[in-house]
Amino acid sequence: MTEAIRDDYQVSSEGAVRHWEIPYARLEDITPTPSFPAAVADDAAPPGTGLPQLCGTILTVDATNSVAVIDFTCSMVYMHNVRNVTTYGTGVETVWAAMDIGYIVYYDRSALVAGVYLSLAAADNAAVANPKFGWIVPWSDADAANYPKGGVTASTQECAVMQMGAGGGA
After folding, report:
1. pLDDT at 114
2. Residue 34 to residues 13, 78, 115, 166, Cα–Cα distance (Å)
3. Contact, 67 vs 23, CB < 8 A?
4. Per-residue pLDDT tens over the stretch 132-147
5. Per-residue DSSP letters for 56-83?
6. What is the pLDDT of residue 6?
7. Which pLDDT tens digit goes with each residue over 58-97?
8. Which end of the chain has a smaller Cβ tally under 10 Å, C or N?
């Protein structure tokens, strides 16, 4: 009997890669940009319920068909801009923290800083729970030596983020 070579998704040591087309209208940010984080709007678990929400990294966009291809692979690591805000006051950032390896990163609906959708804030500027996106991890040994990043004043830092993705739990 001849052995068959399985497809990559059947033998990958990292698990299945999950790239799906999602219509713009189903995204929290309906103007997606490649390499940016994304969160899929969930009518069954609306913002503030604290339930897990599907998040990933945008790979490509198809403006003709209004769909974005998003990588929802659990534990995939991408470089993202992360805001060091932890708490909002009345619509403004009020508390910041130095970011460190292992910190939880949230998909922040506030988007008070153009192009930055991730932060350390568990709730947005309207006090509504943000979905968990993933965790800060070192990109390399040299990057690990740069932590903690950001300090206790407002800043945006480029960080490697291991995304929770599909099947990553709460």
Report:
1. 78
2. 26, 12, 11, 19
3. yes
4. 999 999 999 999 999 9
5. EEEEEEETTTTEEEEE--TT-EEEEEEE
6. 47
7. 999 999 999 999 999 988 999 999 999 999 998 899 999 9
8. N
Cis amide linkage into residue 34, ω under 30° from 0: no
Distance of CA 67 to the CA centre of its chain: 18
Distance from the first to the final alpha carbon of the chain: 44
pLDDT-based confidence at residue 38 (cuts at 50, 70, 90): very high
Helix (H) or strand (E) holding 104: strand 104-107
> Of 80, 79, 83, which Cα lies nearest the Cα of 155?
83
CB < 8 Å & 24+ apart, contacts of 20-26: 20/69, 20/70, 20/72, 21/62, 21/67, 21/68, 21/69, 21/70, 22/67, 22/68, 22/69, 22/70, 23/66, 23/67, 24/66, 24/67, 24/68, 25/66
Residues in the chain: 170
Structure tokens at 139: 């990109």
Q: Which of 95, 121, 127 is nearest to 107 (CA)?
A: 121
Q: Tokens representing 103? A: 């910190």
